[in-house]
Amino acid sequence: MHRERRGHDFFFSPRDYLNDPAVLAMSTLARGAYSTLLFALWDQPEPGIAPLGEAALATLARATVEEWARVRDQVAPAFTRNQHGAWVQKRMVAEHARQQEFYRRRARDGASGGYASKRYRDSRWTAMTSALGGRCACCWTIPKRGLVADHIVPISAGGLDNFDNVQPLCRACNTRKGAGSTNWLAIRMQELSSSPAANLQPRPSASKASKASKASKAEEESTKTKSKSLSEPRARRSLRPPIEGLAALPTRTDPWYPTAQEVDAWEKAYPEVQIAGTFSEMSAWLISNPGRMKTFRGMPAFINRWLRREQENESP
Q1: Cβ-based neighbour number of residue 15 at 10 Å
Q2: What b/e string do you get for 137-173 counting C-beta neighbours within 10 Å, with b at 16 or more?
Q3: Cβ distance 149 to 168 under 8 Å?
Q4: Were 37 and a residue from 61, 95, 206, 228 both cysteine, which residue would form a disulfide, CB within 3.0 to 4.6 Å?
Q5: Cα(87)–Cα(57) distance, rounded to whole angstroms?
Q6: Where are the domains of the chain?
Q7: What angle do CA 248, 141, 162 make, to 5 degrees?
Q8: pLDDT confidence tier of residue 171, bands split at 50, 70 and 90
């Protein structure tokens, strides 16, 4: 594997290290040489496999040949030998193989648009999509090309490739979501549990809203009722593509997307606050506290209160 395809870090278990019989048998100096050797082996062309020669081992352990000779026999039992006689650290070789598989899987998912594996298309998937009426959990439309299994937390961000980390989205929302981690499935299931009949009604797209406004004034007024449908400004905001790196905020009805002008205003008003990170915290709090979910109209006031508190906490 190319060096750029290898992580800078590798898994190191202090418990396993301290309880390893080979490590327990080493002197303090030998443990230091062993630890330094381990760290250096991760940067070798084949991680976990040491080069041949005592001088090379001494160099990797940051020791002179004489210092290495005094601890070599204590360090040796922690390694096996391959067919060429080179020292091999099995756990590091296994860790390297695990990282290779991770990068292969991430590249495979990326090539397919970031969709989760098709192995999730089972009875659980059918039950999930049926509960949503065949709709995309994000834009709440029924896509002509069907739904895809999206990773809620992307694999590239450390998300797990299992069924608990997937949600049904249309291809457009899956692409637009990018590296975001909004759990639209949880939001929609909360909405359905509070009002199943109302929430299964299709949400109008921007083009349909425009046609409706031209059709008749009376019909337009009926679609603007406060209890069951969106006003025109609200429809435009809820259908706006999210700003990259900024989480959408769930409300009692539709996701709330900030405008670029609003973000600029917040950054000027609250210079000590990291807006993107704070929006992720707000989104997580709202999802975790569905009983305290805000209205669409009340969201700006909620955001400003939160940002003001953050600014006051950050101020010296």
Answers
A1: 7
A2: bbbbbebeeebbbbbbebbeeeeebeeebbbbbbbeb
A3: yes
A4: 61
A5: 9
A6: 3-97, 112-202, 240-316
A7: 65
A8: confident
Number of helices and strands in the chain (H, E): 16, 4
CATH topology of domain 3-97: Arc Repressor Mutant, subunit A (1.10.10)
Reported as a pLDDT band with limits 50, 70 and 90, residue 113 is: very low
Half-sphere exposure of 155 (CA within 13 A, CB side): 22
Give the chain's radius of gyration (CA, Å): 28
How does 85-120 read in b/e, with b if 16+ C-beta sit within 10 Å? ebbbbebbbebbeebeebbeeeeebeeeebbbbeeb
Angstrom CA distances, 307 to 279, 298, 310, 314, stand at: 9, 15, 5, 10
Residue 70 in tokens: 């005094």
Which residue is it, tokens 């992720």?
Answer: 280
Q: For residue 182, which of 143, 145, 150 has the smallest C-alpha distance? A: 150
Global pTM value: 0.38
pLDDT in tens, 197-208: 545 554 444 444
User: 238: burial class by Cβ within 10 Å (0-12, 13-18, 19+)?
Assistant: buried
Q: Answer yes or no: is pLDDT of 246 > 50.
A: yes
Beta bridge partners of 166: 151
CA distance 308 to 277: 15
Q: Which residue type, as a one-letter code, is found at position 89?
A: Q
Confidence of residue 77 (pLDDT cuts 50, 70, 90): very high
Topology (CATH level 3) of domain 112-202: DNA Binding (I), subunit A (1.10.30)
